[in-house]
Structures are given as structure tokens and as C-alpha cells.
Amino acid sequence: MRVLLVEGDGSAARGTSNTLRSVGYMIDHAVTGHEGVEMLRRYDYDLALLEMVLPDIDGYEVLRAARAARLDTPIVAMSSLNGAQAKVRAFSAGADDYITRPYDTPELAARIQAIVRRSKGYSQPVLQAGLVKLSLDSREVTVKGRLVHLTGKEYMILELLMLRRGTVLSKFAFLDHLYGGMDEPEMKIIDVFICKLRKKLQQAGAKNVVTTVWGQGYMLREDGDEDAPPSGVMMSPPRSSEELALSVV
């Protein structure tokens, strides 16, 4: 998952960033409220963590600006204030949740997972597409109960596909999700990751889970049917490792 942290205190930002990276999240950091709003407009985040006390504008203004811009990114307000009035004000401004500091690390991670999966239409922490199951809690992927060993980037790609199930994702979207606009490699690296992910899933018994949409990108089969393509979408067959290797030379 890709999370935006809006936090003006450098020490607190490092602590929260390290905590979330330790459980597998990709973190971008905005120091000011204006920067936070701009990053929410520019990039596609799974969730934003918003400190309510910021150097320029307060968190309530960030919430109002984000919602006025029709940004539907889930936002969790963070504050040392534990009073009901502060929470009500944050929820009224557009927050999806409110957590007080000092927070418990497992609780913060659990809240993030719950909010993100609900925002994508999932009620359970285990996502499933056909024979493939992905646990947001343990970051494990299984096929027919058999564990599939994925690299960090392969997991992030599959997680993004499952959370955006039924949506065609461009290679730009994958690059943005994996690298956050920093030190991005050439776009063809996404083809390589997809090829390796497909191979691992197929070896475990799940064929054609990730489909190529000509001229647009990749998508996960929404109906879980491994033999027939989703209706109304022009597909290409999965490419072999040899074909892909030739194409990226």
C-alpha cells in the first residue's frame, strides 16, 4: 500500500514512516498542509495520515481542501488531542478515522488496512481472485492453500491489482505505486515484474490471473474465470519469459 504522511515534525515523521515501512507500506512525506493537498491531487494514494498541527495550515483546512477538490482518498487524522470535540470536528471536515498519539503500532496498521479494504469494497482482510488469495495482514499469497513466494515489488503489484480489481492499470500507475515518482526505472521493468508474477502464479496452479489489455495496461480477472476474458475488453495472451526477454533487450 502507498501512504501519504502529512507531518511537520521531522522526528515524529521518521518514527511513523519507519513504523509503517516495517510492515511493508510505501511512505511519501509532506511537511506542510499545502504540500499535502498538492500531493493528494497529483498522486493516487491508498490512504493519507494527517497530523492536525502543521507549520502552515491546520489539518482541518487540509481535510476541507481535499474534500472540496473531490478527492476520495481515505484520510486518518492524527493528534495528541483526545477530546470528543476535536474528533467530531475532524470527522465533520472529512476524516475517515482519528487516532491519538502516542499510538500503538499494531493498532495503526490494523486501522489502515481496515479503512483501505473498506474503501475498495472488501469487508475481509483476505482478498481473493479465482484461486489466488492475498492476506493484507500477513502479506502472504497462496494458491490452493500453497504459499507463493513473491518479491516485495511483485507483492505490491498483485496487491494493487487486487485492491483495484476490475480496473485496467497503466504502466504509469504501477511505476507511481512502486517508486513514488523517485528514481523510477524505465517503464519496461513493469513488463518484467508482471512476467515473473504470472510465472510464479501459474507454477502454483493459477493461470492467466493477470491479463494484458492492449494499449492500456494490465488488469486482474474480475470474475475469477481463468479460461475466458472479461467481456468487452480486448486482451492479449500472456507472453512467455523468452518473448519478454527478447522485447526488453
Automatic annotation (TrEMBL):
Location of the Response regulatory domain: 2-116
The OmpR/PhoB-type domain, residue ranges: 124-222
Q: Which CDD domains match?
A: trans_reg_C (cd00383)
- Segments spanning the bilayer are none
Which protein is depicted? Answer: Response regulator transcription factor
- Asked whether the keyword NADP is assigned, the reply is no
Q: Where along the sequence lies the DNA-binding region?
A: 124-222
Name the GO terms of the biological process aspect.
regulation of DNA-templated transcription
Which Pfam family, just one, is annotated for this protein? Answer: Trans_reg_C
Q: What does the entry list under GO cellular component?
A: cytosol; protein-DNA complex
Query: Which species is this record about?
Result: Gluconacetobacter asukensis
Residue ranges of the region described as Disordered: 225-249
Instruction: Tell me which SUPFAM superfamilies the record gives.
Output: CheY-like
User: Keywords on this record?
Assistant: DNA-binding, Phosphoprotein, Transcription, Transcription regulation, Two-component regulatory system
**Recorded GO MF terms:** phosphorelay response regulator activity; transcription cis-regulatory region binding
PROSITE patterns linked to this entry = OMPR_PHOB, RESPONSE_REGULATORY
